[in-house]
């Protein structure tokens, strides 16, 4: 295995270890939080969609994610899957 391959593998492992999509951050979420507070905690969402004052944002991927639903600028409900 080349030095470049080892460096790339190490970088990928480090990225996964630094993920903000984890059980600890999920437990800090609460209904009524402002959207800015959630983004401060979890970072920029992977995906967002919405209409008519309602929106839904997701952080993570298909295996491990946090999904937050907003009414206006406030958390209405949230869910998570595959969190460690």
Short description:
By secondary structure, this protein is α+β, with helices and mostly antiparallel strands. 32% of the residues lie in helices and 32% in strands. The two termini are 30 Å apart.
Task: Characterize the structure shown.
It is a single chain. The protein is an alpha+beta fold. It has a single domain (20-81), classed as Beta-lactamase Inhibitory Protein, Chain:B, domain 1 (2-Layer Sandwich), CATH 3.30.1450.10. It is 32% helix and 32% strand. It has helices at 3-17, 23-26, 35-42, and strands at 47-51, 54-60, 65-71, 74-81. Strands 1-2-3-4 form a 4-stranded antiparallel β-sheet, covered by helices on one side. Strand 3 (65-71) and strand 4 (74-81) form a beta hairpin. The longest helix is centred in the N-terminal third of the chain and has 15 residues, at 3-17. It starts with a helix and ends with a strand. Mean pLDDT is 88; it is low at 11-17.
Oligomer: single chain
Class computed from helices, strands and strand pairing:
alpha+beta
Number of strands: 4
Strand percentage lies at 25-35%
Strands of the widest sheet, in order across it, are 1-2-3-4
> Helical region count?
3
Tally of structural domains: 1
How would a textbook summarize the main sheet? 4 strands, antiparallel
Low-confidence stretches: 11-17
Query: Under the CATH scheme, which architecture would be assigned?
Result: 2-Layer Sandwich
Distance N to C terminus = 30 Å
Mean pLDDT: 88
The dominant shape is elongated
Query: The CATH topology is what?
Result: Beta-lactamase Inhibitory Protein, Chain:B, domain 1
């Amino acid at each position: 295995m080349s030095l470049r391959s080892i460096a790339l593998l190490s970088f990928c492992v480090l990225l996964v270890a630094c993920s903000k999509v984890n059980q600890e951050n999920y437990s800090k979420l609460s209904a009524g939080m402002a959207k800015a507070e959630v983004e401060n905690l979890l970072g920029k969402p992977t995906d967002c969609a919405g209409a008519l004052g309602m929106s839904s944002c997701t952080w993570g991927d298909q295996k491990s994610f946090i999904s937050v639903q907003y009414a206006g600028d406030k958390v209405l409900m949230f869910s998570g899957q595959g969190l460690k």
